[in-house]
Design a protein that fits this description.
The strands form 3 sheets. The protein has a 7-stranded mixed beta sheet with strand order 7-6-5-8-9-12-11. The model has no long low-confidence stretch (mean pLDDT 95). 34% of the residues lie in helices and 23% in strands. It has 2 domains: 74-283, Rossmann fold, CATH 3.40.50; 284-407, NAD(P)-binding Rossmann-like Domain (Rossmann fold, 3-Layer(aba) Sandwich), CATH 3.40.50.720. The chain is built from 14 helices and 18 strands. By secondary structure, it is of the alpha/beta class. The protein has helices at residues 62-65, 78-93, 114-119, 131-139, 151-161, 179-189, 203-209, 225-233, 266-278, 283-309, 323-330, 362-368, 381-387, 389-393; strands at 4-6, 13-24, 40-48, 54-56, 102-106, 123-127, 144-145, 164-170, 190-201, 221-222, 237-245, 251-258, 314-317, 340-341, 359-360, 372-375, 397-400, 406-407. The chain is globular, with a radius of gyration of 21 Å.
């Protein structure tokens, strides 16, 4: 019998469909000299038989993931900087066009979106629990509160700043197991005609692409329009808008409003119908996804072993959080991948979590000229390919594993 648990949204039965086994904290890159034991947990993913919400069955304490040394900065990608500038400009021209409008961003990271809002002179507040990135945000002149957002936080913000015309979150809501408290906080803080807008990886795209590395400790939920509509309804909110986004391997931007406050856009019904036709959480769909993941695991490890047996130099590109799932589920260590190159200073000179592959600066990749590079940062492939033309010109080849294993 598959493992099961109670749904964190509706209390229904969540039945597991994918077990990645023992996994480390995905963004915990280790100093080589560290003797402290790593924290591991079981990465098991299931779907609720009632509200259809896809979620992890085992929760990692939030303080272990989002802490004072959290290494991810949203501003690291030129494409994402442009994306968030567009988000800010859209809000400035619409929801924030009124007098004394106020926007709150949950999980604002290094302030990449709010910077544009602040430059426009609009009242704003970022809520960011990771101290190191919150300090970067504050240094940019952006108001930031070092905290996790929940009902109590919302009350404190309301008392100081009043109601928000917009509450926004990007790649944040899916990280939060305690959504009931978050949604109660949203209702507390949101203006009567305000909107709660969030964008996160889309489960349909994960299934379609077999992008199994989107499943790791920080991603507790995997949203669809149907599961978000069910979540909203339980908190007297309506799903009134959806927009497909071509970032991070496929996301959806969801817009929620107070029940009855806004008309539902036609795009919502269209996406709900697409999801129903695709039977996203039907057992045969989930079993098919699992089978494709197993094949990708076996194909990738077989390819790497073959290349190493031929004496080929194989490295990794992008010490991403999601690469932890790939490396540990596939049993890939430094014997198969010599190192992983990354431009994030906080990760350089450390070891990848669980698999203990050295992380090196980008200059090492440029100087060494390896034969093959596994593209862990595949969601930024277009930007990376343009940047690394010299690697291809020298005969280097990319190894991809989404949607299946191939050599480019």
């Amino acid at each position: 019998m598959p493992e099961s648990a109670a749904c964190r949204v509706c209390g229904g039965v969540v039945v597991a469909f994918m077990d990645f086994g023992k996994q480390p904290i995905s963004d915990c890159f280790l100093p080589p000299e560290s003797t402290a034991p790593e924290h591991f947990y079981r990465l098991v993913v299931g779907a609720c038989e009632s509200c259809t919400m896809v979620q992890l069955l085992h929760e990692v304490p939030r303080e272990r993931m989002f802490h004072d040394h959290y290494p991810y900065h949203s501003s690291g990608s030129a494409r994402m900087r442009e994306h968030f500038r567009g988000v800010a400009e859209h809000f400035i021209g619409t929801e924030l066009a009124g007098d004394d409008a106020f926007i709150v961003e949950l999980g604002c990271n290094d302030g990449v979106m709010l910077a544009t809002v602040a430059e426009a002179g609009i009242r704003h507040l970022g809520v960011e629990p990771s101290g190191s990135v919150a300090d970067v945000t504050a240094a940019r002149g952006i108001r930031v509160r070092k905290d996790f957002f929940e009902e109590e936080t919302a009350r404190a913000i309301l008392a100081e700043d009043g109601r928000a015309a917009v509450i926004y979150a990007a790649n944040t809501l899916c990280h939060i197991p305690y959504l009931d408290s978050v949604l109660r906080g949203v209702r507390e803080l949101l203006a009567p005609d305000g909107v709660f807008v969030f964008e996160d990886p889309y489960f349909a795209d994960i299934v379609r692409q077999t992008s199994f590395d989107q499943m790791y400790d920080e991603h507790f939920y995997y949203f669809t329009a149907r599961s978000v509509a069910e979540l909203a309804r339980r908190h007297d909110l309506d799903l009134v808008g959806v927009e497909r986004l071509p970032v991070h391997g496929g996301e959806v931007r969801y817009t929620l409003a107070r029940a009855g406050a806004r008309e539902r856009a036609a795009a919502v019904a269209e996406l709900l119908a697409e999801e129903a036709a695709a039977e996203l959480t039907a057992r045969h769909t989930l079993d098919g996804f699992r089978d494709r993941v197993l094949k990708a695991r076996d194909d990738l490890t077989a390819l790497l072993r073959d290349l190493r047996s031929q004496g080929k130099d194989v490295v990794g590109y992008g010490a991403t959080a999601k690469s932890a799932t790939v490396l540990n589920y596939c049993g890939i260590g430094p014997e198969l991948i010599a190192y992983v190159t990354d431009t994030t200073p906080a990760k350089q000179g450390r070891l990848t979590p669980g698999s203990h592959i050295p992380v090196v600066p980008h200059q090492s990749f440029a100087d060494d000229g390896p034969h093959y590079a596994v593209l862990f940062a595949w969601n930024h492939a277009e930007e990376i390919m343009a940047k690394e033309q010299a690697f291809r010109d020298a005969g280097g080849r990319w190894i991809r594993y989404v949607p299946g294993v191939r050599v480019d």
